[in-house]
Amino acid sequence: MGNEKILEIKDLHTAFRFQDEYFDAVDGVSFSLHKNELLAIVGESGCGKSTIANSIVGLHDKNFTRVSGEIIYNGKNIANYSEEQFNEIRGKEIGFIFQDPLAALNPLHKIGKQIEESLIYHTDLDKEQRHERMLQLLDQVGIVNPKRTANQFPHQLSGGMRQRVVIAIALSCKPNIIIADEPTTALDVTIQAQILDLLTELQNEINAGIILITHDLGVVAQMANRVAVMYAGEFVEVAQAKELFSNPLHPYTRSLLQSIPQSDLVEEELHVIQGMVPSLKNLPRKGCRFAARVPWISESEHEENPVLHEVSKDHFVRCTCWENFHFENEGGC
Amino acid sequence: MWKTILRRVLLMIPQLAILSVIVFVFGQMMPGDPFTGLITPDMDPLVIEEIKEKNGLNEPIPVQYKNWIVKILRDGDFGRSYTYKMPVATLIGERAKNTLWLSLLTLILTYLIAIPLGIYSGRYQNSHLDKAVIVYNFVSYAIPSFILALIFLLIFGYRLGWFPTTGSVEIGIPKGTFAYFRSRLHYMILPAITAAILRTTGTIQYLRNEVIDAKTQDYVKTARSKGVPTNKVYTHHIFRNSLLPIAAFFGFTITGLLSGSVFIETIFSYSGMGELFITSINSRDYAVMNTLVLLFGFLTLTGSLLSDIIMTIVDPRIRIE
Amino acid sequence: MSFLEINDLKVHFPIRGGFFNTIQEYVYAVDGVTFFIEEGKTYGLIGESGSGKTTIGKAIVGLEEPTGGEILYHDKPLGSRRARKKVGYNKEVQMIFQDVLSSLDPKKRIRDIIAEPIRNHEKLTDEEELEKILTLLNIVGMPPDALYRYPHEFSGGQRQRIGVARAVALNPKLIVADEPVSALDLSVQAQILNFLKKIQKDFNLSYLFISHDLGVVKHMCDYIYIMHRGRFVETGTRDDIYNNPQHIYTKRLIAAIPEINAENREEIYKNRIKVEQEYREKESIFYDKNGKVFDLVQISGTHYVAIKSKEDLKNVENNIA
């Protein structure tokens, strides 16, 4: 992994407006991304992981969103770029892959046209060269008959093929960063495996850094170099993938891993996290946000203003409640 | 696709046949007949009876129906109008031309007003322009068509005198000249604008919703993530997708216009099919009435076919085989 | 004892076309599957999208008419709607859906939603009904004040509980659960799965669990059916399928599941690539010339594999070894 930092995010806050009040959906997130690195941000729906992705490339509706903090790309803070400024970067230096490839493609345009579109705005290629490049891209993402596919419409392709096309679009200008927001959630497992393999393969070719947004811990375990676990707008644990899965520390990470059905003991009950994810408006803005989900842990175990602590090299955990954490049925220790 | 079109056209035959029976029977069930209006105290009822006999109105209904249909199919003869004393085909033909031109102008005006307003209010949702458009929409939706027509007549016709208030062309101008064409247009503008304003409501509302909806679609997000400039996102991606439902209704809109301008034509005394329809009902002019209903039925069926064909052209996802 | 037998079930969907809109071809959604359901057991139906697994579920609850084969309920065939009604089948077999929100009428209160099946099948007074609904809410762990609220006021997990409450209202014997947890977050999914297991014990329920998630199916099911192209490619106990998969398609599915373990990624990856390659090379042993899945062959007491002949299977093993 090249150690060159290509993106740095410092204290990012992204707030959504309800009536006239703003609520932080992303509440003070900081991280960096390196060349050829795959950073996974994992969490349940509503935790703010997709909001981070949208904030980086300014894809949210600016009338209802407020972004503060720093997103440093190429030495510049792009957090509050205008749409025009973002258009210079989007598609060219940062590629985006979406969850549902059918919805992500314009139903009325042919595949070829949709891939060529970003080349129009970001390269000096003429029409023929663009066409050439487009066919080359389709070939690169493993489409067997690029000429034929280029002339088809999205609905004529299978789910896996569509996602390959979406990847081709994201990679068309050899971006430095690829943001993949649940890229395989809508796909069958066998197709998912193919798409993820393809993504890593292509990443190595162009040395891009990938931010993978997902809720699937299996995908994270197989793909990521580094993992950030997100809960209620904050990162609660950040570590190298191998470290995180062999030595998960934060109560939330541990609870999540416990609730995955994978053991061979069928009679065993799955672990259930108590209570519910608080809604954006009711998020506790003080103290440990996970405290309400582990009521058997005494208040004194939590930090007053929880921060990420580096507990071992490159392994960060928020709050102090992990130190003496035990599951409810395990009894105190 | 041609097969499907042919099949649909052939299917129209039984549909129209059933319609013709219904129309005929209901027509006969209406009280009175074409000559009821002629009855005056000093007219001998026997004379009327004689006229009715001569015109075949005393035959049993099935026989009358048979006579009517046979004539249509054999001679292309739709009968004679009792009121206008001319062949129905000729009469409707003339009126249809008037209505056709009026409809065309109405359609163009409708889209000229509705499409930009719909797109802009959708794009700049909650802006002042958007709010103004919403108010406009409420007003044009709530106002009864005859009131609007009367107001326009009053202001632009009588007060300002910009437009003629009755008829379809100035009398005495030779056909085919430019002056004739100009006069036709002059007579059409006021009814067309009135009809257009009344018709914009649905289109604007639809388009506005479609644009607002499209803005949040993933493919628009994809386009933005590609770095496509905002204006191009609208012209290349949002616009065409938003127009789909409008295109889907296009066939119905056209035929709706052709058969549905009853109010406007009547109020502006514009001699089109709508006005003719009302007159024919009032005077029990069976031949005209029945033919018009059949024609409207035919137009509706054609409209739905036309809409389907348009859809297959504009939306690659839909293919009629 | 099995109470439900499915024999050679076929559901074919016609594709219409041509001039007379005649049937040109069929989609073989389900093409000859045989299995049975015993009391208190859970059966997993696994397959990728389009494999026909949901169609089987729908055919069993009567939402899809079988084209061939038969469904026997206590040895009585359920050919028609009337036959199903006669044996009280509709009461005994219920379904829960992946997309719960769209399966709950948004304009109805929870009380009426849960009461619907009760009102259709049982005659209870208002008080009895209310009492029953409160008991049901209690069973699914929802507070009584949920009664008069609407579906949109609840979270995904709560809605799924309401769906379950409605399904168990009539004490059914079998619940067909079509991807009941796919749309839910991990922690909520765990809750629902635990809960489904609990009420299974309480009511001696059987489940037909339709899912593409092999982890969930492994956790829930006693007996597993792997589907591909409308047919079973492999059936057996959980142990048979996960520890001794024989059909190349099963192996491919299992190899594709991302393990929650970051240690031996390389091996997992290599194994997956190997299986993929094998899948391409060995196709002729597991699928006939037209790509159809062979009939099932028994290879142990509970384990069946779709293969041309047992010899082929041995050859495959030797080759791999």
Automatic annotation (TrEMBL), chain A:
NCBIfam families: oligo_HPY
A Pfam family: ABC_tran
Predominant subcellular localization, coarse grouping: membrane
GO molecular function, one term: ATP binding
InterPro entries in UniProt: AAA+_ATPase, ABC_Ni/Peptide_Import, ABC_transporter-like_ATP-bd, ABC_transporter-like_CS, Oligopep_ABC_C
Family to which this protein belongs: Belongs to the ABC transporter superfamily.
Nucleotide-binding recorded as keyword: yes
Membrane disposition: Peripheral membrane protein
Cell location: Cell membrane
Name of this chain's protein: ABC transporter ATP-binding protein
Domain (ABC transporter) ranges: 7-257
Keywords: ATP-binding, Cell membrane, Membrane, Nucleotide-binding, Transport
UniProtKB/TrEMBL annotation, chain B:
Domain named ABC transmembrane type-1: residues: 96-307
Alphabetical UniProt keywords: Cell membrane, Membrane, Transmembrane, Transmembrane helix, Transport
Protein topology in the membrane: Multi-pass membrane protein
The keyword Membrane belongs to this UniProt entry's keyword annotation: yes
Any matching Pfam family: BPD_transp_1_N
Localization annotation: Cell membrane
Presence of keyword Metal-binding: no
Bilayer-crossing regions: 9-30, 100-121, 133-158, 178-198, 243-268, 288-314
Sequence similarity: Belongs to the binding-protein-dependent transport system permease family.
Protein name: ABC transporter permease
Organism expressing this protein natively: Tissierella simiarum
From TrEMBL, chain C:
InterPro entries: AAA+_ATPase (IPR003593), ABC_transp_ATP-bind (IPR050319), ABC_transporter-like_ATP-bd (IPR003439), ABC_transporter-like_CS (IPR017871), Oligopep_ABC_C (IPR013563)
GO MF, one example: ATP binding
Keyword set includes Cell membrane: no
Domain ABC transporter: 4-254
Matching Pfam families: ABC_tran, oligo_HPY
Record has Aminoacyl-tRNA synthetase as a keyword: no
Cross-referenced CDD domains: ABC_NikE_OppD_transporters
Keywords recorded for this protein, A-Z: ATP-binding, Nucleotide-binding, Transport
Protein name, UniProt field: ATP-binding cassette domain-containing protein
Organism: Tissierella simiarum
Lineage: Bacteria, Bacillati, Bacillota, Tissierellia, Tissierellales
